[in-house]
Amino acid sequence: MINLDDIDIKILSLIQDDACKSNSELAKQLGMAPSGILERVRKLEKKGVIESYNTRINPLALDQKLLAFIFIKSNESFGSMQLAEDIANLTEVQEVHHIAGDDCYLLKIRTTDSQSLIQWMRESLGKLPGIVSTRTTIVLETLKETSHLTIPKADKS
Amino acid sequence: MINLDDIDIKILSLIQDDACKSNSELAKQLGMAPSGILERVRKLEKKGVIESYNTRINPLALDQKLLAFIFIKSNESFGSMQLAEDIANLTEVQEVHHIAGDDCYLLKIRTTDSQSLIQWMRESLGKLPGIVSTRTTIVLETLKETSHLTIPKADKS
DNA sequence: TGACTTTCTGAATATTGTTCAGTAAATATA
DNA sequence: TATATTTACTGAACAATATTCAGAAAGTCA
After folding, report:
1. Where is the HTH asnC-type domain positioned along the sequence (chains A, B) (predicted)?
2. What is the set of domains in chain A, with CATH numbers?
3. Which tens digits make up the pLDDT trace of B123-154?
Protein backbone atom coordinates (compact mmCIF):
# COMPACT_ATOMS: atom_id res chain seq x y z
CA MET A 1 0.00 0.00 0.00
CA ILE A 2 2.47 2.63 1.10
CA ASN A 3 6.01 2.32 -0.04
CA LEU A 4 8.75 3.81 2.08
CA ASP A 5 12.36 3.83 1.01
CA ASP A 6 15.48 3.84 3.10
CA ILE A 7 15.55 7.60 3.50
CA ASP A 8 11.90 7.78 4.57
CA ILE A 9 12.57 5.17 7.21
CA LYS A 10 15.54 7.11 8.50
CA ILE A 11 13.54 10.31 8.66
CA LEU A 12 10.78 8.58 10.60
CA SER A 13 13.31 7.06 12.98
CA LEU A 14 14.79 10.45 13.68
CA ILE A 15 11.59 12.40 14.21
CA GLN A 16 9.48 9.77 15.95
CA ASP A 17 10.80 10.72 19.37
CA ASP A 18 11.85 14.25 18.49
CA ALA A 19 9.04 15.84 16.54
CA CYS A 20 10.63 19.27 16.50
CA LYS A 21 13.97 18.23 15.08
CA SER A 22 14.89 20.79 12.45
CA ASN A 23 15.02 19.99 8.76
CA SER A 24 18.55 21.29 8.70
CA GLU A 25 19.66 18.78 11.27
CA LEU A 26 17.88 15.97 9.49
CA ALA A 27 19.56 17.14 6.30
CA LYS A 28 22.97 17.04 7.96
CA GLN A 29 22.44 13.55 9.35
CA LEU A 30 21.18 12.20 6.04
CA GLY A 31 23.58 14.07 3.80
CA MET A 32 20.88 15.90 1.91
CA ALA A 33 19.70 19.46 1.35
CA PRO A 34 17.11 20.77 3.82
CA SER A 35 14.68 21.45 0.99
CA GLY A 36 14.82 17.84 -0.07
CA ILE A 37 14.02 16.72 3.44
CA LEU A 38 11.14 19.15 3.66
CA GLU A 39 9.66 17.77 0.46
CA ARG A 40 9.84 14.23 1.78
CA VAL A 41 8.29 15.12 5.10
CA ARG A 42 5.44 16.95 3.38
CA LYS A 43 4.88 13.89 1.26
CA LEU A 44 4.85 11.59 4.29
CA GLU A 45 2.24 13.85 5.85
CA LYS A 46 0.11 13.85 2.73
CA LYS A 47 0.34 10.08 2.38
CA GLY A 48 -0.84 9.70 5.95
CA VAL A 49 2.36 8.04 7.11
CA ILE A 50 2.90 10.87 9.54
CA GLU A 51 -0.38 11.28 11.40
CA SER A 52 0.37 14.09 13.81
CA TYR A 53 2.92 15.86 15.94
CA ASN A 54 2.04 15.59 19.60
CA THR A 55 3.32 17.00 22.82
CA ARG A 56 3.11 14.39 25.54
CA ILE A 57 2.02 15.98 28.78
CA ASN A 58 2.49 14.45 32.21
CA PRO A 59 -1.03 13.47 33.31
CA LEU A 60 -0.17 14.18 36.92
CA ALA A 61 0.48 17.80 36.04
CA LEU A 62 -3.16 18.04 35.03
CA ASP A 63 -4.27 16.11 38.09
CA GLN A 64 -5.25 13.05 36.10
CA LYS A 65 -3.99 10.48 38.52
CA LEU A 66 -6.21 7.60 37.49
CA LEU A 67 -5.86 5.39 34.45
CA ALA A 68 -8.35 2.64 33.75
CA PHE A 69 -9.32 0.17 31.06
CA ILE A 70 -12.98 -0.68 30.65
CA PHE A 71 -14.44 -3.61 28.76
CA ILE A 72 -17.90 -2.93 27.44
CA LYS A 73 -20.44 -5.38 26.12
CA SER A 74 -23.05 -3.99 23.80
CA ASN A 75 -26.36 -5.24 22.51
CA GLU A 76 -26.17 -3.43 19.21
CA SER A 77 -27.02 -5.24 16.03
CA PHE A 78 -23.86 -6.60 14.52
CA GLY A 79 -22.02 -4.07 12.39
CA SER A 80 -23.44 -1.02 14.07
CA MET A 81 -20.79 1.19 15.55
CA GLN A 82 -23.00 3.85 17.09
CA LEU A 83 -22.05 3.03 20.65
CA ALA A 84 -18.35 2.96 19.84
CA GLU A 85 -18.60 6.32 18.13
CA ASP A 86 -20.48 7.79 21.06
CA ILE A 87 -17.81 6.54 23.40
CA ALA A 88 -15.05 7.88 21.18
CA ASN A 89 -16.63 11.32 21.40
CA LEU A 90 -16.15 11.47 25.15
CA THR A 91 -13.01 13.52 25.70
CA GLU A 92 -11.76 11.60 28.72
CA VAL A 93 -11.52 8.47 26.57
CA GLN A 94 -8.10 8.07 25.00
CA GLU A 95 -8.67 4.82 23.14
CA VAL A 96 -11.57 2.78 21.86
CA HIS A 97 -10.89 -0.63 20.37
CA HIS A 98 -13.28 -3.18 18.98
CA ILE A 99 -11.89 -6.44 20.23
CA ALA A 100 -12.35 -10.08 19.35
CA GLY A 101 -14.81 -12.02 21.48
CA ASP A 102 -18.34 -11.34 22.56
CA ASP A 103 -19.34 -7.94 21.06
CA CYS A 104 -16.85 -6.15 23.18
CA TYR A 105 -15.12 -2.82 23.23
CA LEU A 106 -12.05 -1.95 25.21
CA LEU A 107 -11.50 1.61 26.18
CA LYS A 108 -8.75 3.48 27.95
CA ILE A 109 -9.66 6.44 30.08
CA ARG A 110 -8.04 8.97 32.38
CA THR A 111 -9.71 10.84 35.21
CA THR A 112 -8.67 12.61 38.36
CA ASP A 113 -9.29 9.74 40.73
CA SER A 114 -11.53 6.76 41.35
CA GLN A 115 -14.38 8.96 42.52
CA SER A 116 -14.36 10.96 39.34
CA LEU A 117 -14.24 7.72 37.37
CA ILE A 118 -17.37 6.46 39.06
CA GLN A 119 -19.02 9.78 38.47
CA TRP A 120 -17.99 9.74 34.81
CA MET A 121 -19.34 6.22 34.37
CA ARG A 122 -22.68 7.28 35.79
CA GLU A 123 -23.02 10.64 34.12
CA SER A 124 -21.34 10.17 30.75
CA LEU A 125 -20.82 6.55 29.88
CA GLY A 126 -24.00 5.36 31.55
CA LYS A 127 -26.16 7.68 29.48
CA LEU A 128 -25.18 6.02 26.22
CA PRO A 129 -27.67 3.48 24.86
CA GLY A 130 -26.55 -0.03 24.03
CA ILE A 131 -24.35 -0.90 26.98
CA VAL A 132 -25.10 -4.29 28.48
CA SER A 133 -22.29 -4.55 30.96
CA THR A 134 -18.89 -3.17 31.88
CA ARG A 135 -15.79 -4.56 33.52
CA THR A 136 -13.30 -2.04 34.81
CA THR A 137 -9.59 -2.56 35.35
CA ILE A 138 -7.75 0.01 37.41
CA VAL A 139 -4.10 0.70 36.73
CA LEU A 140 -2.00 0.82 39.88
CA GLU A 141 1.26 1.78 38.23
CA THR A 142 2.47 2.34 34.70
CA LEU A 143 5.95 1.10 33.79
CA LYS A 144 5.93 2.02 30.13
CA GLU A 145 3.60 4.08 28.04
CA THR A 146 4.51 5.19 24.57
CA SER A 147 3.20 5.24 21.04
CA HIS A 148 6.66 4.48 19.71
CA LEU A 149 6.71 2.00 16.84
CA THR A 150 9.55 -0.37 16.21
CA ILE A 151 11.10 0.74 12.94
CA PRO A 152 12.97 -1.79 10.79
CA LYS A 153 16.63 -1.16 10.01
CA ALA A 154 16.42 -0.59 6.26
CA ASP A 155 14.51 -1.98 3.37
CA LYS A 156 15.78 -0.03 0.38
CA SER A 157 13.07 0.93 -2.11
CA MET B 1 2.73 19.32 43.37
CA ILE B 2 3.03 21.18 40.10
CA ASN B 3 1.34 24.52 39.79
CA LEU B 4 0.25 25.67 36.37
CA ASP B 5 -1.25 29.06 35.76
CA ASP B 6 -3.66 30.18 33.11
CA ILE B 7 -0.96 30.89 30.54
CA ASP B 8 0.72 27.52 31.06
CA ILE B 9 -2.60 25.79 30.50
CA LYS B 10 -3.15 27.73 27.30
CA ILE B 11 0.30 26.88 26.03
CA LEU B 12 -0.25 23.20 26.73
CA SER B 13 -3.64 23.32 25.00
CA LEU B 14 -2.08 24.84 21.92
CA ILE B 15 0.90 22.55 21.59
CA GLN B 16 -0.63 19.27 22.73
CA ASP B 17 -1.85 18.43 19.23
CA ASP B 18 0.60 20.60 17.35
CA ALA B 19 4.01 20.02 18.83
CA CYS B 20 5.82 22.08 16.20
CA LYS B 21 3.78 25.23 16.58
CA SER B 22 6.21 28.13 16.56
CA ASN B 23 6.89 30.26 19.59
CA SER B 24 6.01 33.30 17.55
CA GLU B 25 2.56 31.99 16.82
CA LEU B 26 2.03 31.04 20.43
CA ALA B 27 3.19 34.52 21.35
CA LYS B 28 0.70 36.09 18.97
CA GLN B 29 -2.19 34.03 20.26
CA LEU B 30 -1.34 34.72 23.87
CA GLY B 31 -0.38 38.36 23.45
CA MET B 32 3.15 37.89 24.72
CA ALA B 33 6.69 38.18 23.44
CA PRO B 34 8.20 35.02 21.87
CA SER B 35 11.04 35.06 24.37
CA GLY B 36 8.57 34.95 27.22
CA ILE B 37 6.86 31.94 25.71
CA LEU B 38 10.18 30.21 25.21
CA GLU B 39 11.04 30.72 28.84
CA ARG B 40 7.76 29.19 29.95
CA VAL B 41 8.07 26.21 27.65
CA ARG B 42 11.62 25.54 28.85
CA LYS B 43 10.32 25.65 32.39
CA LEU B 44 7.49 23.24 31.61
CA GLU B 45 10.04 20.84 30.15
CA LYS B 46 12.30 21.12 33.15
CA LYS B 47 9.42 20.60 35.57
CA GLY B 48 8.46 17.44 33.69
CA VAL B 49 5.07 18.78 32.68
CA ILE B 50 6.06 18.39 29.05
CA GLU B 51 7.43 14.88 28.70
CA SER B 52 8.30 14.66 25.03
CA TYR B 53 7.51 15.75 21.50
CA ASN B 54 6.43 12.80 19.39
CA THR B 55 5.63 12.18 15.79
CA ARG B 56 2.73 9.76 15.50
CA ILE B 57 3.33 7.35 12.67
CA ASN B 58 0.63 5.29 10.98
CA PRO B 59 1.36 1.71 12.09
CA LEU B 60 0.10 0.36 8.78
CA ALA B 61 2.81 2.27 6.96
CA LEU B 62 5.31 0.16 8.88
CA ASP B 63 3.31 -2.99 8.30
CA GLN B 64 2.24 -3.28 11.91
CA LYS B 65 -1.28 -4.43 11.28
CA LEU B 66 -1.89 -6.19 14.56
CA LEU B 67 -2.62 -4.63 17.91
CA ALA B 68 -3.13 -6.76 20.98
CA PHE B 69 -3.50 -6.49 24.72
CA ILE B 70 -2.04 -9.23 26.87
CA PHE B 71 -2.79 -9.91 30.52
CA ILE B 72 0.06 -11.58 32.32
CA LYS B 73 0.05 -13.31 35.67
CA SER B 74 3.37 -13.57 37.42
CA ASN B 75 4.65 -15.61 40.32
CA GLU B 76 7.13 -13.03 41.51
CA SER B 77 7.41 -12.21 45.16
CA PHE B 78 5.24 -9.23 45.90
CA GLY B 79 6.98 -5.94 45.21
CA SER B 80 9.43 -7.28 42.66
CA MET B 81 9.14 -5.63 39.32
CA GLN B 82 11.77 -7.59 37.46
CA LEU B 83 9.31 -9.21 35.08
CA ALA B 84 7.59 -5.94 34.32
CA GLU B 85 10.91 -4.28 33.60
CA ASP B 86 11.95 -7.12 31.34
CA ILE B 87 8.71 -6.79 29.45
CA ALA B 88 9.08 -3.04 29.19
CA ASN B 89 12.45 -3.55 27.54
CA LEU B 90 10.92 -5.40 24.62
CA THR B 91 10.60 -2.84 21.85
CA GLU B 92 7.35 -4.16 20.41
CA VAL B 93 5.65 -3.44 23.72
CA GLN B 94 4.11 0.02 23.82
CA GLU B 95 2.63 -0.09 27.29
CA VAL B 96 3.09 -2.01 30.51
CA HIS B 97 0.69 -1.42 33.35
CA HIS B 98 0.54 -3.01 36.76
CA ILE B 99 -3.16 -3.51 37.32
CA ALA B 100 -5.34 -4.19 40.31
CA GLY B 101 -6.28 -7.80 40.90
CA ASP B 102 -4.30 -10.99 41.05
CA ASP B 103 -0.64 -10.01 40.40
CA CYS B 104 -1.37 -9.00 36.89
CA TYR B 105 0.22 -6.92 34.22
CA LEU B 106 -1.48 -5.56 31.16
CA LEU B 107 0.58 -4.86 28.11
CA LYS B 108 -0.11 -3.37 24.73
CA ILE B 109 1.81 -4.64 21.77
CA ARG B 110 2.03 -4.17 18.02
CA THR B 111 3.29 -6.69 15.51
CA THR B 112 2.92 -7.37 11.82
CA ASP B 113 0.18 -9.98 12.10
CA SER B 114 -1.10 -12.77 14.30
CA GLN B 115 1.65 -15.11 13.19
CA SER B 116 4.34 -12.69 14.22
CA LEU B 117 2.55 -12.19 17.52
CA ILE B 118 2.63 -15.92 18.25
CA GLN B 119 6.25 -16.01 17.27
CA TRP B 120 7.02 -13.04 19.52
CA MET B 121 5.24 -14.64 22.44
CA ARG B 122 7.29 -17.77 22.04
CA GLU B 123 10.64 -16.22 21.31
CA SER B 124 10.65 -13.02 23.35
CA LEU B 125 7.94 -12.98 25.97
CA GLY B 126 8.11 -16.70 26.65
CA LYS B 127 11.78 -16.56 27.54
CA LEU B 128 11.21 -14.23 30.47
CA PRO B 129 11.12 -15.89 33.89
CA GLY B 130 8.16 -15.40 36.18
CA ILE B 131 5.22 -15.72 33.81
CA VAL B 132 2.50 -18.02 35.07
CA SER B 133 -0.12 -17.45 32.43
CA THR B 134 -1.22 -15.08 29.70
CA ARG B 135 -4.54 -14.04 28.23
CA THR B 136 -4.44 -12.30 24.88
CA THR B 137 -7.02 -9.94 23.45
CA ILE B 138 -6.79 -9.15 19.75
CA VAL B 139 -7.97 -5.79 18.48
CA LEU B 140 -10.14 -6.05 15.39
CA GLU B 141 -10.55 -2.36 14.78
CA THR B 142 -9.47 0.83 16.49
CA LEU B 143 -11.92 3.73 16.60
CA LYS B 144 -9.86 6.13 18.64
CA GLU B 145 -6.28 6.12 19.75
CA THR B 146 -4.64 9.16 21.20
CA SER B 147 -2.61 10.32 24.14
CA HIS B 148 -4.54 13.57 24.27
CA LEU B 149 -5.38 14.75 27.76
CA THR B 150 -8.49 16.72 28.58
CA ILE B 151 -7.30 20.14 29.66
CA PRO B 152 -9.41 22.24 32.01
CA LYS B 153 -10.56 25.66 30.83
CA ALA B 154 -8.66 27.91 33.20
CA ASP B 155 -7.65 27.91 36.81
CA LYS B 156 -5.80 31.21 37.29
CA SER B 157 -2.82 30.97 39.65
C1' DT C 1 13.19 8.49 -29.03
C1' DG C 2 10.83 12.08 -26.57
C1' DA C 3 7.62 13.74 -23.12
C1' DC C 4 6.74 13.48 -18.52
C1' DT C 5 7.44 12.74 -13.61
C1' DT C 6 10.14 12.35 -9.57
C1' DT C 7 13.77 13.70 -6.61
C1' DC C 8 17.10 16.39 -5.43
C1' DT C 9 20.33 20.65 -5.14
C1' DG C 10 21.60 25.30 -4.02
C1' DA C 11 20.61 30.06 -3.70
C1' DA C 12 17.49 33.66 -2.10
C1' DT C 13 14.34 35.33 1.16
C1' DA C 14 11.07 35.20 4.95
C1' DT C 15 10.34 33.56 9.30
C1' DT C 16 11.63 31.88 13.59
C1' DG C 17 14.68 30.59 17.58
C1' DT C 18 17.60 32.28 21.04
C1' DT C 19 20.21 35.33 23.81
C1' DC C 20 20.51 39.10 26.72
C1' DA C 21 20.13 43.54 29.04
C1' DG C 22 16.79 45.91 31.29
C1' DT C 23 12.14 46.78 33.70
C1' DA C 24 8.39 46.10 36.77
C1' DA C 25 6.06 43.54 40.01
C1' DA C 26 6.01 40.24 43.58
C1' DT C 27 8.21 38.11 47.41
C1' DA C 28 11.32 37.56 50.89
C1' DT C 29 14.55 39.63 54.40
C1' DA C 30 16.18 42.49 57.99
C1' DT D 1 8.91 49.82 56.96
C1' DA D 2 12.72 49.83 53.92
C1' DT D 3 15.72 46.99 51.30
C1' DA D 4 17.30 42.99 48.84
C1' DT D 5 16.13 39.18 45.90
C1' DT D 6 13.53 36.62 42.80
C1' DT D 7 10.35 36.02 39.08
C1' DA D 8 8.25 37.03 34.71
C1' DC D 9 8.26 39.57 31.09
C1' DT D 10 9.64 42.88 27.05
C1' DG D 11 12.08 44.28 23.01
C1' DA D 12 16.13 44.49 20.29
C1' DA D 13 19.92 42.03 18.09
C1' DC D 14 21.66 38.18 16.04
C1' DA D 15 21.92 33.36 14.60
C1' DA D 16 19.57 29.64 12.76
C1' DT D 17 15.95 27.65 10.31
C1' DA D 18 11.89 27.26 7.15
C1' DT D 19 10.32 27.86 2.71
C1' DT D 20 10.21 28.88 -2.07
C1' DC D 21 11.79 28.22 -6.53
C1' DA D 22 14.45 27.52 -10.78
C1' DG D 23 17.05 24.14 -12.64
C1' DA D 24 19.61 19.53 -13.08
C1' DA D 25 19.72 14.60 -13.18
C1' DA D 26 17.68 10.32 -13.28
C1' DG D 27 13.93 7.41 -13.88
C1' DT D 28 9.34 6.09 -16.17
C1' DC D 29 6.18 5.49 -19.69
C1' DA D 30 4.24 5.38 -24.35
Report:
1. 4-65
2. 6-46 (1.10.10.10), 59-138 (3.30.70.920)
3. 999 999 999 999 999 999 999 999 999 998 76
